[in-house]
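input
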Amino acid sequence: MVWHLVLMKPRSGLPIADRRALLEAFDRACRDIPGVRDVRIGRRFTFGAGYEGGMPDTADYMIALAFDDAPALQAYLRHPAHQELGARWSQSLSSALVYDFEETRLEDLRTRESGDLGI
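output
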């Protein structure tokens, strides 16, 4: 499984109509693009943990999209619905971090001879 992880912060003062348009474009991309296996969305919260003070203020929301493999993710990124979404993101966000991860299981890490994390 491959995860496409997006950490993002909407522009300050973004009109509600623009927020809705962004959400609609995201919903359309998730529904219309084949290969999206799972979608997870979260809003950042803080509770006084020590690491919070050292984090940059670059993300209020998290989106994680799951795909079977890298070719499925690449097809998602090339799809016209994603192109529309990308245009909305550029207009709507003050910052974003986007990463792709290949999932592994903890059990698989335990059995590796080298003791590394698979890098």
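quick obs: The mean pLDDT is 91.
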